[in-house]
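Hey, sorry to bother you again with one of my protein questions. There's a protein on my desk that I can't quite get my head around. No rush at all, and the record is pasted right below.
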Amino acid sequence: MSAAAKAPHDPRPLIGEPLSLDLLNTRWMQDGVRQDLLTGTEGLAVWLAANGLDGDGAGAFAADGPTLEHLLHARDALASLVDTPEDPAGIARVDKVLRHGRIRATLTAAGPGEEPEFKDPSWGPAWLAARDYLRLLAAARDRIRGCAHESCVLHFFDTSRNGTRRWCSMAACGNRAKASRHYARSRET
């Protein structure tokens, strides 16, 4: 995408989470109806742009059918694992995605580094999301959370100091829960 081109609008209520959770958050609830950003390549283009995986050059991927198919496979694999981390079938599904890429160690004038490599670039975004999930597991498995609101399907990585975040967004789900509790108390009196 050129610098002059405007990034496509991202309609999701929660953005900016780590790549793996951002992929899971391409499905959300709005007014009681499940929404899905990844129903076609247009939504894929939005997701790629939101995560800096579009454009020209290294680390850019095409918003095409094969990339979408592989990304949906990775999303389903991560979804099966995020709420049931010990599920052998979920582990196998994520591992299958991880087989499509690898990390190559590099040395440049700036120092040591790592670079992902893919035999088929259409697996790139899916592999990067699965690899990011491994990074989150290694960093703090217990901080990968689903929103505590009963009708919310979003996930987040709790970066709060004391690790007690419960809501995907205090302004949305947290506020709805507080309003529901207030309403229930006012009905009791």
About this structure: The longest helix spans residues 170-188. The longest strand covers residues 102-108. The mean pLDDT is 89.
